[in-house]
Design a protein that fits this description.
By secondary structure, the chain is of the alpha+beta class. It has eleven helices and 14 strands. The protein is globular and about 75 Å long.
């Protein structure tokens, strides 16, 4: 039996070496002080995105909203939605422009809420970064706050998380959740749609926040274009076109619900016009849309041309120039178009609702786009 090996004594055996420094959160890549600086920088923007019902301030564990404001409703229904902005963040990161991404986030959430007729009340956000860069985070929150102002809702809270090792130092992703309210007997949707209703299209501001995996693949990978490239069809650089903020329709849709009769809305996001419109067309009815009633912005055609993308693929991926649809009875068409015109939203009659008959599809697109 051999004797056990002696254990070196650090005090008497220099070869044992000094104890190594202890691990820390900072050594692991998380900078708490940078997070605190980001909070300080975003405070002024959060303060601008409030409603009278908002309580408390930034820094709490939960956002507070005075629900007594809902007592004016007979039967208030709360609506909830959550979303992100997809790979559009990659464009923002490459250009080091971050405030428009926050605007996009609000649009994707509140315009889902308003589809059922709900008024957006408040939002929370989640920003996940590889490394906290206070000015960058504050710019994202600035955009969120400005978007909330445009949507008429409050930004009541959020979270910034630093995930070193999962994301690169300049990488981040964003997500948001919103809550709205609608009177039970005022909920909009498929059950209100009738034969003879008109399909009113509202113009998008561009690509919005869907289809960027395809768009980036076409322009940046296949064509090898840089984001700084000036594109004559756009009248600006490729990067400027791709970062065009998503239009926020919530207050426009609420104005329609107040001033005229609306049966349903459809937010045109991933899945395109036909895919999203089909979500509100009831069994037995059919929506037809005439492409010749509008001219999509040049970016849509250029994605198809440069990437040799077939029209069916484009139409199921991109909004093709329509960001929101209202389905209204014929007697409300003129009032709907006039209200939207007064609010600066380009709109037009794009089609209508008929009996489905022997058609298998809930929605068909016909004709060719106007030029």
């Amino acid at each position: 039996m051999t004797d056990p090996a002696p254990v070196p004594d650090p005090a008497s055996d220099p070869s044992a070496g000094a104890p190594s420094a202890g691990a820390s959160y900072a050594a692991a890549g998380v900078d708490i002080e940078a997070g605190d600086r980001a909070v300080e920088l975003m405070k002024e923007w959060v303060a601008k995105a409030q409603r009278p019902e908002s309580l408390g301030g930034i820094g709490g564990f939960a956002g507070l909203f005075d629900a007594s404001a809902l007592t004016r409703y007979k039967r208030p229904l709360l609506a909830s939605a959550t979303d992100g902005v997809g790979t559009k963040v990659a464009v923002a990161q490459q250009l080091d422009i971050h405030d428009s991404i926050g605007h996009d986030l609000v649009a994707m959430v509140v315009d889902d809420l308003v589809v059922c007729g709900a008024e957006p009340l408040f939002m929370t956000d989640y920003i996940c970064v590889g490394k906290v860069r206070p000015k960058q985070v504050a710019q994202i929150v600035k955009g969120i706050a400005e978007g909330c102002v445009l949507a008429g809702c409050a930004l009541v809270g959020g979270e910034t998380a630093e995930h070193p090792g999962l994301l690169g130092p300049d990488e981040y992703d964003v997500a948001g959740a919103g809550t709205g309210v609608v009177e039970a007997d005022a909920v909009l949707g498929a059950d209100r749609i009738r034969t003879g209703d008109a399909v009113i299209a509202m113009a998008s501001s561009g690509l919005h926040s869907n289809g960027y995996s395809l768009v980036r693949h076409v322009f940046l990978e296949r064509a090898g274009w840089s984001l700084e490239r000036r594109v004559e069809e756009f009248g600006r650089t490729l990067g400027e076109e791709l970062l065009e903020p998503t239009r926020i329709y919530s207050l426009d849709c609420l104005a329609l619900a107040r001033t005229t009769t609306v049966h349903a809305f459809s937010h045109i996001t991933g899945g395109g016009l036909a895919g999203n419109l089909a979500r509100i067309v009831p069994e037995g009815l059919h929506a037809h849309v005439d492409r010749s009633t509008w001219t999509p912005a040049p970016v849509f055609g250029l994605v198809g041309e440069v990437g040799q993308v077939a029209r069916p693929e484009l139409e199921k991926t991109l909004n093709m120039g329509v960001g929101m649809v209202a389905v209204v009875p014929q007697e409300s068409v003129d009032a709907t178009l006039e209200t939207l015109r007064e609010r600066g939203v380009e709109s037009w009659v794009a089609g209508g609702i008929t009996e489905r008959g022997d058609r298998a599809e809930a929605v068909t697109l016909t004709g060719d786009h106007a030029r």
